[in-house]
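Course assignment 3, question 2. Fill in each field.
Student: A.L.
Task: Predict the tertiary structure for the chain below.
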Amino acid sequence: MNDPYLVPLPTLEPGRARRHRFGGVAGMSLRARQFRARVRTRLRSERGAATAEYAITTLAAVGFAGLLVVILRSGEVRGMLTDLVRSALSIPA
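Answer field:
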């Protein structure tokens, strides 16, 4: 194996894997414990990812809302919307 992140998992005979109270396996090798620690560290490092995604989404929504405000303030669009509302509220003769 050339990749230092690929660690072979220890093979256990059936019935030999005893679990500790906190989910560890008795007799786990040093390399397996190091691999497990690396995985836990990487999982912990993504704790704020959801918050950052919400912040980016909120910024995009605010930018889109600002663009809509600019578009709707133009005279042509305002006239089209006014005509649309008048035709919707008018009673056909």
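Instructor remarks: The longest helix spans residues 49-72. Helices lie at 30-44, 49-72, 75-89.
Grade: pending
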